[in-house]
Model the fold of this input.
Amino acid sequence: MKRITLTTILMALVGLLMISCERDITEPTISSNPAGPELANLSLNVPFNVNNADSLVRFSWSEADFGFKASIAYTVQLSPKSDFSENVANLITTQQLSGSATVDAINTLILSWNYSIGENVTVYYRVAATVSPYVETVYSEVKSAAFVPYDAVINYPMIYVPGSYQGWSPGAENGRLFSYGFNSVYQGIIRLKDGDNPTTEFKVTLSPNWNGPNYGGTLTQSGDNYSGVLDPNGGNYVVNAGTYSFNVDVDALTISLTKTDDWGIIGSAVPPYDWSQDVDMFYNGQRKVWEITADFNAGEFKFRANDDWALNYGDTGGDGTLDAGGDNIPLPEAGNYTIRFDPVKLTYTIKKN
Done:
């Protein structure tokens, strides 16, 4: 009987201790209405241009309130849309109440949204505050700032396409593909023409030389297009001569080529200066435009695809926007020029060198 009584007393004491401990623990309670950070206007004390590419654009904000003390991650987000419905970029992530990004980083971001150089662009920004994947993110109010993107070449990651069309030279300017999304997918447009040969051979290399991995193999043809795999032991790829849009995924080890338009310029300003034949342009994949640098006469010219008048562009009204079948584009004086043409945005630039 005494043993039973002692056991009962001990069990009761343990129960009381457990109840006491439970009362001493304060569990965090998430506010039903957490407050997002208050965002200050961004700060940039110099002009937004290439001369200040390394200068800092500064963002600052107050602490978010989730109803309890927590380790909060803050992310500065930018978008060309006020509702952040597309092209949302995470510019900075920090646990501090401020952060900075370079002018160059923001300029690169704006250009990646396919805005034109010199175009006034409204950029919207906000701060997201996060404590856990299981707790809903809270945001600051949305603010905006106007920027004019400047001419700058984005240093996209590259792979290379050496072949018979360019002397089998890995790393040559003619034969580069770019990862516009900074991921495993590389794209570009290449004219695969080896003189008068009906076919062209090439390979894909990950380095601007033959020292790193290189790929070949057999492509499957479908109409004018091709697809296949990246085989590290494969022979040279072979395709019909032409101009192709490439899509290469170095993780999935896939490759596809889609035949596309081959652009040139023609006119009284363009050699041979008599509207009799095109001069081929070169696709600059880093800028995503067709371009040519050459000596031109005073005169006129147009952009023409595939050495044929079925698809051509001029500039009716001289407003800098291209029109299908539009008026001839004047070149007032002779000289050495760089002419660039964007068949997606239907814009062009003429720069005298």
The two ends are 109 Å apart (CA to CA).
